Amino acid sequence: MTFSVHISVLVIAITLAGLGIFGNGIGLSVHLSTRCDKRQSVYFVTKGFSESLLLVCTILQNSLPLMTDPTTIITDYFHPILYQFSLFSRSWITVVIGVEKLLAVWAPFFARAHFDRGLEIKLSLITVGIAAVFTAGDFLTKHFTSYLARVMNIEYLFVGGEIKMPLYSVIICSLLPWVIVLVCSVVTVLGIRSSRKKRAKLTNTRNREGNDQADNNTSDLMVPVFLCLLAFIISSIPVVMYTVLVTIGNTLESAILSDKALVIMGMVYLFSDLIGYSIDFYVSLAVREEFRQQLKANLLSIENSFLRQDV
Q1: What does the pLDDT read at residue 123?
Q2: 64-107, pLDDT tens digit by residue?
């Protein structure tokens, strides 16, 4: 990639990342507001914070090649650790969201009895804690027992440009969560369709209007979550494809992707990641009435505070 092309890509990447960080920051303020749905907000606060860190990593990783002498603490410590921790947290909190929605459809009484805000806070903290332990363990393995990688011939992948991660880390942080979220989403959709068909059979014509209203209420609750899950699935497809291709290449002991294909794949990685890390706020803004009302209330509160200062 030429220097001018790299500069153009960097400008676009920084612009998209800036919009993503801006949106995630506003989204966090809305989810942390007292009037917002606290149960649903717990997961989205964790996810939004992780995605903001990933956007920072994306800007940093694409700026490293332009640095004449990037410090070791950035290239070998801060950047890879922050990236892997954030990626693990974001991926597995999305898995938790997908599994909860699956249980809400297929086992509604169980979900209603057990899933409350307290449990969701615990699950979020557990996810972040496991991410920290996994990242620390992987870091120690890489830097203090690197001879194991040579002995075991562990393959490394380039994920997100210049970040080197072991193949097993890519599988745990990206491939496995993607598969679980995809399966949960498909099974949940099938469950919703099945429940609607059952209600249609049991409901007579006089109650048809109430039945339609119940379906609309379910859609209002599920659509924002499903759109966020869909964004996760679509944005993770490049890393899933790359993981599969590299695994096949390692098995066959031959390169599947050429150098040009690797550059193109890196570009696809970059922009799919930027969109995937930034889209939750804009989805919520488009389809969630409660989210828009709370955002408007927050903006009015900020405006009133400025007016009081001027007085």
Answers
A1: 92
A2: 655 555 555 566 666 678 888 999 999 999 999 999 989 988 88
- What are the helix and strand counts (H, E) for the chain? 13, 2
- Please state, in angstroms and rounded to a whole number, the distance separating the CA atoms of residues 114 and 96: 14
End-to-end CA distance of the chain: 56
Nearest to 162 by CA among 20, 90, 262: 262
The answer to whether 161 touches 262, Cβ cutoff 8 Å, is no
Burial, 288: exposed, middle or buried (Cβ in 10 Å; 0-12, 13-18, 19+)?
buried
3-306 under CATH 1.10.287.90, yes or no: no
Distance (Å, whole) CA 11 – CA 283: 24
Helix, strand or coil for residue 153?
Answer: coil
Of the candidates 180, 274, 270, the residue with the CA atom closest to the CA atom of residue 229 = 180
pTM of the model: 0.80
Tell me the per-residue pLDDT of 34-68, one tens digit each, with 9 for 90 and over.
Answer: 555 555 678 888 999 999 999 988 777 767 655 55
Residue 277, both tokens: 């890390």
pLDDT for 86 equals 92
Residue type at position 249 = G
What token pair was written down for 13? 């990447």
Q: Taking each helix axis as running N to C, give the angle between helix 176-202 and helix 79-106, from 0 to 180 degrees, rounded to the nearest 10.
A: 20
**Cβ neighbours, 10 Å, residue 45:** 20
Domain boundaries, the chain: 3-306
One-letter amino acid at 161 equals G
| Residue 158: band (very low, low, confident or very high) from pLDDT cuts 50, 70, 90 | very low
Mean pLDDT for the chain overall:
77
Residue type, 281: F
Mutual angle of helices 259-287 and 38-63, in 10-degree steps: 150
What distance in Å separates the CA atoms of residue 171 and residue 150, rounded to the nearest whole number? 19
Nearest to 270 by CA among 6, 11, 13: 13
Q: What is the pLDDT of residue 163?
A: 44
